[in-house]
Amino acid sequence: MTGARTRLRTVAAVHWRMYMRFRFLPLLLVTIFCAACGDGSSKSPGTPAKPAPEPKSPGTAVETVKISSPEYRTRQQVLETTGKVQFNEERLVRVNAPVTGRVSEVLAHPGDIVEQGHRLLVLDSPDLGTAKSDYAKAVSDLERAEKAVTLARELFQAKAIAQKELRDTENDYRKAMAEKERAASRLRTLGVPDSQFNDISVRTDTSTTVVVTAPRSGVIVERNVIPGQVVAYGQSDTPPNLFLISDLSTMWVLADVYEPDVPTVHLGQAAAVTLPCCPGTRYEGRVTYISDSVDPQTRTIKVRVVVPNRGRALKAEMFVKVTISTGSAKVLALPQSAIQRENNETFVLIVKGKDEYERRPVTLGADIDGVVEVLDGVTSKDRVVSTGSILLKRTVK
To answer: What average pLDDT score do residues 375-394 get?
Structure first.
């Protein structure tokens, strides 16, 4: 009985070891099967494997070299210079004192937009009283002279006086009429309307107040008068300006042009003005005047350009850049990729033969729509490396 139990224990131990050894076998078989399926989906048995790409040799880059010849392009020629902005003198008016007097009131200020006839200031002037008295006296003298000439003509017809006396009376009448017109003109100069002349002639209007008005519409850009100031009339050839009124819709730009460039500038040429602060904003205009004298200090002449003043951005005395279109010309041009620079030298590669190139220095001009003007060094018959020259310049001396 004891031996039977021992044999049973031995058989059970053997079965347990076999179970522990082969319990992971199904999982291993499943993993191997899935791996085999994955390899078959990515590459079919009948498809040959693609060979790995061979690395390019350095010499194969030369195949990208392209050859071209310089071509003629039309380039707009311009003259670039500097200038200064000024008020348009043709649309600028200076207001001076029409009579000597004391300023009692100032009615306008810098920056005001005024219309013709706008009240600017009020003067208290004794000269106005004198002018009114002169007019009243002239009217009285004319009435007396008119009566005298009428009487003289009647007497002459009655042969009561000589013809000489009639002529003298008629001369006095004409003098009185001229004196009245002179006095009336003086009143108009002082700003007195004709509607007041009748009151002045009968001496009911003896006021000494003068109202100075704007002679034209515009913007007040300068004022040089204050209340209480005494202003004078006719005491100098250049009387002081009480007000400056300008139409700012256009401005003058006086550009400086050096003597060698004078033959290229003509009336009517288009010009563009740019401000140093805003180089992207251009003010288009035209040349309207070319000076006939040269400044002995700067050796330049003044060229005037009239420019529309958009948004009143242009201010008097501003310094600006001026570009004047002086015409067009045919020039040789090459692509930018054909130009090479090395050791402060600018050159291109000229094709001399098969796989044979030569460096040639060139002088460049302005850029023209993606190409560059060539002033010297090549001709239209040369063949130039336009693409890929950067790969060859190290091998070409």
So the answer is: 75
Q: Which residue has the tokens 């291993």?
A: 28
Q: Residue 388 and residue 334: Cα distance in Å, rounded? A: 14
Domains, the chain, with CATH or none: 64-75+330-392 (2.40.420.20), 79-88+248-328 (2.40.30.170), 93-120+215-246 (2.40.50.100), 126-207 (1.10.287.470)
Q: How far apart are CA 108 and CA 280, in angstroms?
A: 37
Amino acid (one-letter) located at 10:
T
Contact at 8 Å (CB) between 95 and 194?
no
In one letter, which amino acid is 275? L
Residues 6+ apart with CB under 8 A from 392: 62, 65, 349, 357, 385
Q: What is the pLDDT of residues 366-380, one digit of tens each?
A: 777 778 888 888 888
Prediction pTM value: 0.61
The one-character DSSP state at 377 is: S
If one counts every other C-beta atom within 10 angstroms of the C-beta of residue 156, the result is: 16
**Beta-carbon count within 10 A of 283 CB:** 22
The CA distances from residue 280 to 23, 277, 321, in Å, are 84, 9, 12
Question: Looking up tokens 């602060």, which residue turns up?
Answer: 277
Write down the pLDDT at residue 55. 44
For residue 67, give the amino acid letter: I
Number of other CB atoms surrounding residue 60 within 10 Å: 8
Q: Per-residue DSSP letters for 40-97?
A: HHHS-TTSPPPPPPPPPPGGGGGGG-EEE--EEEEEEEEEEEEEEEEE-GGGEEEE--
- Is 323 exposed, middle or buried, given 0-12, 13-18 or 19+ CB atoms closer than 10 A? middle
